[in-house]
Write a structure and sequence with these properties.
With 309 residues, the protein is of the alpha/beta class. The protein has two domains: 10-130 and 294-306, Aspartate/ornithine carbamoyltransferase (Rossmann fold), CATH 3.40.50.1370; 131-290, 3-Layer(aba) Sandwich (Rossmann fold), CATH 3.40.50.1370. The mean pLDDT is 95. Helix content is 41%, strand content 14%. Helix 1 (15-30) packs across helix 5, helix 1 (15-30) crosses helix 11 (287-306) and helix 5 packs across helix 11. It starts with 14 loop residues before the first helix and ends with a helix. The strands form two sheets. The protein has a five-stranded parallel beta sheet. The protein is globular and about 55 Å long. It is built from eleven helices and nine strands. Helix 2 (53-65) links the parallel strand 1 and strand 2 (69-73).
Amino acid sequence: MLTQGHFISLSDYASCDIRLLLDTADEMKKHPAAFRKALDGKILTMIFEVPFPRTRISFESGMHRLGGTTQLISGDEIQLDWDEPVTDTASVLARYADGIMVRACEHQVVRDMAACSRIPVINGMTDLEHPCQALADLQTLRERFGRLEGLRLTYIGDGNNMAHALLYATARAGMDCTLVMPGIERFQCAPSVVERAAEEHRRQGTRLCITDDLEAVRESHVVYTDTWVSVGKEADRLKRIEAFRGYSVTQGIMDLAGPEAVFMHCLPACRGYEVTAEVIDGPRSIVYDQAENRMWTQMAVMHHLMGQA
């Protein structure tokens, strides 16, 4: 049994919860037929303030593989910030569905929905954290290396929701984490997230390092990056590209990381900016494994929160 009734942040979950979800995702991937009726008759309502096809399709595919159905509410149909109180939205949807997945701009929206919902709420992504992707990344790395403990992940780029999720994920998984990003405050991770993640890394005995020096990528098992211009930051596009120009993941960076290093990206990717085509389309890239595992790990989350697991 999971210790939480919602899936909002990996920081809410104990390491044993993460292992349980990963073990379940692995079992589903190996024996999908055994779970075809796991959520038979269940309904997942999906709320998107902004459309994201990959998130929608991965949840739809996963829910259908578990025997359930989905409902889609778009940003044109609902305004989570002013049209109706979030508490009303969550309370009403709880009368119709068995779970709610929310991809919202503001993290507090998801927190508020979970606080008043009597059915599970899943964070599909917010401005603060992307826990579904980070969980899929852990499954992908465990498949690749046969373990998580002792691995070293180096993230290069913006201190965004993906970086936040990886800070928590690596701590929970017993991995060292290095963040390499420009030494400019606006591109750094949120101090509250860093403080919380650093405390967990200390408890786990793992290493957390934040620097602007690309040399820190040495001896990494994983080199990870994300787009320089996340959703909601388009107005700052040119300034962001200029600030991050020296932080592209090139073949030279991969060589510096070492022969074992794999490349990861949560997609969509902008080749020629945060990563070169040579790297993302090369033999050390596992980005499509990550994308596939979004479905399996999300299935595990839905199974444990909405089913009888």
